[in-house]
Every structure is written in C-alpha cells, then in structure tokens.
Amino acid sequence: MGYIPRGALENLKKYSYKGVDKSLVSKYVLNPFWTWFVTLWPLSVAPNTITLLGLCIVLVNFVTLLLHDPAYLAEKGGVFVPSWVYLSCSIGLFLYQSFDAIDGKQARRTGMAGPLGEMFDHGCDAMNTTLEVILASQALNLGRSWWTVASQVATLANFYLTTWEEYHTGQLYLAEFSGPVEGILLICGIFAISGVYGPSFWDTGIMTFLRLSSVPVANQLPDLPLNDSFMVFAAFAVCFNVYSSYNNVRRAMRAAGKPTVQPLRLLLPFVLSVAIQVFWLSHPRYDDSAIINSALFVPFLCAWGLQFAHQVGRMILAHVTNSPFPWWDWMWVWSFVCAIDANLPLIASRPPVIQTSEANTTAVVYLTLAISFIAYGRFCALVINDITNFMGIACFTVRKKDKDGVWQDTVPDAKKKL
C-alpha cells in the first residue's frame, strides 16, 4: 500500500477530529467571521485547496521579502524594505489564519472531513511555522542573530508540544491564549507596526517606550529592546505551554490507567533534533563565513523547518492511524554528520573535512535544503496517495469513489452544520 502499513490504514476509518478551543477571541470575534467567510466559497472547492491557497499566500510574502532583502540583513544591516511588504505580510498571515480555520468548515459542508484533511492542514501549518519565524524576525529587526534562532526553537517547540499533546489525548487543545489564534494576531500586529514605523522601532528600549526611565524603581531595570523583550515573552509562553500540555496529557493518561511520566520521554526527539541543528549552527567560525553571519542563514532555517515538518508529520500520521510514536528520523543522521564536520576544530583540533571553505559550506547547506525538501515532499506524496486510495477520496477535488470504484462528484448539503 506504500508508506502506511495496511493494518494502520484500517484505523483511518475510526479516526474523527476532536478539538477544544477556549479562546474568547475565537469564540466571539473570529468564529462568527469564519462562519460567514466559508459561505463565500463554492461547494465545488475542496477543503485542502483552501488550505494550500493559504500557504501559497505566505510563500508569496516570503519570496517578496527575500527579493527586497536577499541577504536577510534587516535595517540593522542597512537594508530598508518598503513598508508595503510588511503590511502585505500582516494581511497575508491573517488570510492564512482565516483559510486555515475555514478548511474544516468547508470539509463539513462538502462531506470531506477526515484524516486526510487533518494531515494536510497540520502539514501546511508545520511549513508555515518556519516561514513566519523568518518573516517576523526580520520585521522585528532581528535578522541574522541568535534571537532569531531562539524564536525558531520556541515556535517549533510550541508546535511539537501541541502535536505531542494531541497524540496522547486524542484532542487538539487551544488555550485561552494560543498560537493559532492570539499568537497569529499578535504577529499580524507586529507586521503592521513595522509597516508603519519600520523594523527599527523594535530596537526601542521597553522602559523608554513605556516612559518609565525616569521612574525611581523602574529606572533600575534594564532597558531591554522591544524585540528582545518579545523573545523573553516567547520563552515564558513556551514554559507555560509545556506545563499546560503536560497537565492535559497527565489527565488523559490517568483516565486511561496509563503511566503519566512515560509520555515525557517522547519530548526527547525534539530536544535531540534541536541540539543537532544548534550544534551545527554554533560551529567555531565567527567570521563572515559562519552560517549565522552569512546569507546561508535563511536556507539553513528552511532546511531545519522542512526536517521538522517531516518529524511532526510522522507524529500526526501516527495519531490518525493509531500507530506507535515515531522516535527516530533518518534526516538527523545527515545533519549530525554535517554538525560534527563543522565542529571538528572544537572536537579534534583539526579543520573540517567537507566544509573547508565558504563555497563548500554553501554547497552543503543548499544540498541539505534540497534533501530535506525531497524527503518531506516524498512523505507528503506517499501519504496522500495511500489515504486517497484507501479512503476512495480525492485530495484537491470534491469527489469520492462509489461501491464500484468509479469516481463520482459529491452533491453535499449546503445546510450542513458548520
């Protein structure tokens, strides 16, 4: 059958999406808008088509930014991106959020709800995560910096935690303040402010911005720039999400009569994958040829993001097929070898074997990007092929196979509950 064993495919028929959204913004503001917005789409449009269109909008934002700042220097590097680019990123991210929210509603309208939509939705979200880190970090005037790396780690950690939590509880939990709702709106606001005032606005000290520099007690606190302060806030958000996610998992494990500590071991694959990437990035070459100080920084982050998408994609697949949790990803071997090679001066007091020059390092990073893209693309193609063939559905059209195996256009009831 391809990528998924037949026994696991049988579990697809038992899968049903379950979610809990405690966000007041989602309930009273966004959901009424989404319920109206989905009615603008013809019933002939497949839910996955809407999801893909949302990702394409973000990709356009990403390409537009790199066309104006290909070296990813931001304003602190002397590059001034037109304000409309940031404003378009704000609009694009809001549209992505809206498209991502209504694809499930469209699935229920068209009778196409199922595990394929769950896989496709989360797969696009995983890729969008890294793209938005790159876009938002540039808008915050962070550019090539360890703060951008920290933002990548924090954002991927939140996504991994959500997927890990859903695997163990069977439900997608969105708290009162969650990344897919309030987090996205916050980043939309960052883009809008950067469009009006420029990214250098975020270099303003927080005490200066709040006009507390002259207050006796407050002036003893560090005047941390707003962009750095945002990163500190993100770190606290990750800690809160770890606590919240584990509480949900612990309750689910107790209710099922299973050990409550064992799931924590399944966080180790993420820690290992991050350690490998950071180890490679922190190799002891601090001149302009170092990855973090060069134009290779963005392709490195993109390769990292694709490897992460492959990792969480397998986690989501394990969830919808009720299969064992994926502990291992072969792409780690490639990145680990590259990290060891780059750090040979530190490990063995000898120069790298492969990454001996800027040209060789460039070739290795872009080769890593290509391999990561091919590996994730292969995963997506094989999984989509397996699920559509087994379930008798199409991915990008509203069609199903009848009992004789003939494709039929569905005629859904437009009045179905959204």
Automatic annotation (TrEMBL):
Keywords: Membrane, Transferase, Transmembrane, Transmembrane helix. Its main location: membrane. It catalyses: CDP-N,N-dimethylethanolamine + a 1,2-diacyl-sn-glycerol = a 1,2-diacyl-sn-glycero-3-phospho-N,N-dimethylethanolamine + CMP + H(+). One of its GO terms (molecular function) is diacylglycerol cholinephosphotransferase activity. PROSITE patterns: CDP_ALCOHOL_P_TRANSF (PS00379). Its EC number is 2.7.8.2. The chain crosses the membrane at residues 50-67, 79-99, 183-202, 229-246, 266-283, 289-309, 330-348, 363-384. InterPro entries: CDP-OH_P_trans (IPR000462), CDP-OH_PTrfase_TM_dom (IPR043130), CDP_ALCOHOL_P_TRANSF_CS (IPR048254), CHOPT (IPR014472). It is an enzyme of class 2 (transferase). It is found in: Endomembrane system. It is a multi-pass membrane protein. One of its GO terms (cellular component) is membrane. Pathway: Phospholipid metabolism; phosphatidylcholine biosynthesis; phosphatidylcholine from phosphocholine: step 2/2. It holds the Pfam family CDP-OH_P_transf. PANTHER family: BB IN A BOXCAR, ISOFORM C (PTHR10414:SF37), ETHANOLAMINEPHOSPHOTRANSFERASE (PTHR10414). Belongs to the CDP-alcohol phosphatidyltransferase class-I family. This is diacylglycerol cholinephosphotransferase.
